[in-house]
Fold this sequence. Notes:
Blueprint: H1 6-27, H2 34-47, E1 51-55, H3 58-68, E2 76-79, H4 86-93, E3 97-100, E4 123-127, H5 138-147, E5 153-155, E6 163-164, E7 167-168, E8 175-179, E9 193-197, H6 200-209, E10 214-216, E11 219-220, H7 231-262, E12 267-268, E13 282-285, H8 289-298, H9 327-335, E14 336-339, H10 347-360
Parallel strand pairs: 2-3, 2-4, 5-8
Antiparallel strand pairs: 1-9, 6-7, 8-9, 10-11, 12-13, 13-14
Amino acid sequence: MEFIDLKSQYAEMREIINARIQMVLDHGQYILGPEVRELEDRLAAYTGAKHCITVASGTDALLVALMALGVKAGDEVITTPFTFVATAEMVVLLGARPVFVDVDADTGNISAARIEAAISARTRAILPVSLYGQPADMDEINAIGARNRLPVIEDAAQSFGATYKGKKSGNLSTIGCTSFFPSKPLGCYGDGGALFTQDDALAKAMREIRIHGQERRYVHTRIGVAGRMDSIQCAVVLAKLKRFDRELGRRGEIGAHYSAMLSRHMITMPVKPDRTSAYAQYTVRARDRAAFEARLKEMGVPTAVHYPMALHKQPAYAAMSAGALCPVAEQLAREVISLPMHPYLKLEDQDRIIEAATRASDPRTSKG
């Protein structure tokens, strides 16, 4: 049983993926080829954003966004401690400090109610993460940003394709960032990412930053990075876009079936009624995670933990996070465990996973 089944996806889409890659091999424009602009146009139209800028990875997307906003040494960026390290890592690489705000227990997303108290004179941006595929409480977060004249960057690495009150994730704030890492709901066959914005000036800055700060050939107007997305990776995403909405629909069906069956036996993480999830992961909670994981392994069910240690507890971030109080994030880090999730998961296999998870669940996690 596969945790994420990219082989079945490729088998279904082999002809169109191969044809798209072959086009790049034929024209030979491996850097900033026509597929780059085509993908940017398609993704902008998909999200409703005015601008899309592709970059070399989701991590680069965060870095380029922060650079475009002028985040620098001594600044602070408010973010969540319960996420992949790249979210905070890019803040630190610019010499700024991540200020960690605790999360909501039901979704794992940053608690909007706790953000304003963390704002200081040094705060330069708010950086929420749409964890596991479900957008954070973006209206409340954007309102806090507006009141305090702070831009909001949505880290939508896991949520591309999800909606929030009818709008697409990635087009919910000042800048949206996403990832096309192979395991994401819309993934390429290497690294890739994209930024989204309605702001013309920010779009111009981000386009220049991703190519060494270059306004035109050998004229560098700002500090930049080598952040371009390869033409071949753009070609792969273009091919996968044709089936993306169908795959999202299947992810939604699988997620709903998991929740309907498992919520009777363990703590699940529900999707709020005013939004959808791209279900990059399907995650439950187990108080004795090690025992739960071991039992599932014995029954042939693969699992993963996203994420086992909150960022303010990580050795590299502990000193700069002294005093951070994030008990909910710490509890989730001890308890969360993800089950197989991909659009090619067969019903009989999912029911086998559900049966195994029900049998393996620690009685102490029961809601009853």
